[in-house]
Specification:
A three-stranded parallel beta sheet has the order 1-2-3. 55% of the residues lie in helices and 9% in strands. It is mainly α. The mean pLDDT is 86. Helix 2 links the parallel strand 2 and strand 3. The radius of gyration is 15 Å and the shape is globular. It contains three helices and three strands.
């Protein structure tokens, strides 16, 4: 799942915590959450002590987030392809 925050100028600590909870919920369903377009002000809030960025997989922009997802998808497909060819 990609959360694109491009154009979001600021988030408060509560919103940042909600983003992290959302990302962890996505992971619990077996998917990954990638956050793109994080500006300087949002990054400062996300860097607040107590907010774990592990679940967010931040990228610079939407294009990089899409590339990240495509590469991750290819990595997941490779073991299946090698198993079926053996």
């Amino acid at each position: 799942m990609i959360l694109d925050l491009t154009g979001v100028m600021d988030v408060d600590t509560s919103t940042a915590e909600h983003l992290v909870r959302l990302a962890k919920a996505v992971q619990s369903l077996g998917a990954r959450c990638v956050v793109s377009g994080i500006g300087a002000e949002v990054a400062q809030t996300l860097a607040t002590p107590g907010i774990s960025l592990e679940a967010l997989s931040p990228t610079r922009n939407l294009q990089q987030a899409l590339k990240h997802c495509l590469v991750a998808g290819r990595r997941l497909e490779q073991p299946r392809e090698s198993q079926s060819s053996g």
